[in-house]
Design goal:
The N and C termini lie far apart (about 60 Å). The chain contains 7 helices and 9 strands; from the N terminus they run αβααββαβαββαβαββ. By secondary structure, it is of the alpha+beta class. About 25% of the residues lie in helices and about 30% in strands.
Length: about 240
């Protein structure tokens, strides 16, 4: 049985600072409290604070300037074309009732393929969750997700029966970076059965990875029947 561990002081400081940045409480340009002040606030050594700030800098959330302190970074000019959408909201936008069901949830050692997808070290552990999202009486999307237990240990104790993994993770872990990969497949036997479609039906696959300052959060693959889903992106020309 999985034993949930209390977060270390390092993780607590990291999570609280990251949360303030991602939520907008500390906007771009905001100066982070000095190391000595954070050490006093959390009753810890400056070395612990320094390690947290170094990790946040590596994640691109802050910029450390000699003699000036640490500042929340400005967002990059290149932004992700795709936002992280809520599947429930997508279905409801079609004026159809939404429901979902978990068909699999396991905690296990990460396989080589899992470690590649999440960029995990050897001997890592993951939660694997498979869900079907429905629009009315028809399957809308197959969700196959891996969650890193090193970054989100709380996921081991959640059954995801009342809240899908996506919204739960957004509430639990502020993400700092996301990557999308989009491609098409022909439905194999398992995908066809899950989505109630014929084998070899064209499907749209959206794969997403997200990271926080603490490390990789999740890899998820959404598979949609090709005739029921489209991706739309709007672009604005750069200022001349």
């Amino acid at each position: 049985m999985n034993q949930r561990k209390d977060p270390t002081l390092h993780q607590r400081i990291l999570s609280e600072i990251e949360g303030r940045i991602v939520s907008g409480e500390w906007p771009p340009g905001h100066r982070i409290p000095f190391e000595v002040d954070l050490a006093t606030q959390y009753d810890c050594s400056r070395m612990t604070v320094n390690k947290v700030l170094t990790q946040l800098a590596k994640a691109g959330l802050i910029e450390r300037r000699k003699k000036s302190g640490s500042f929340v970074t400005q967002p990059q000019a290149q932004s992700a074309v795709l936002e992280i959408h809520d599947i429930k909201a997508e279905v409801q936008s079609l004026n159809l009732p939404y429901s979902y069901a978990v068909s699999k949830k396991t905690c296990r050692k990460a396989k080589a393929e899992d470690r590649s997808r999440l960029e995990l070290p050897v001997a890592s552990s993951v939660v694997e969750v498979v869900c079907i999202h429905n629009a009315g009486a028809r399957p809308f999307c197959l969700e196959e997700r891996l969650i890193s237990l090193a970054t989100v240990p709380e996921a081991a104790d959640v059954d995801f029966l009342t809240m899908a993994p996506g919204p739960w993770l957004l509430n639990q872990v502020p993400w700092s970076t996301a990557e999308h990969r989009i491609h098409a497949i022909s439905a194999g036997a398992e995908v066809a059965a899950a989505l109630d479609i014929a084998r070899n039906t064209a499907c749209l696959v959206v794969e997403r990875r997200t990271w926080s300052g603490a490390g990789p959060v999740t890899h998820v693959r959404f598979t949609y029947p090709g005739d029921r889903h489209a991706l739309v992106a709007r672009f604005t020309p750069a200022s001349q």
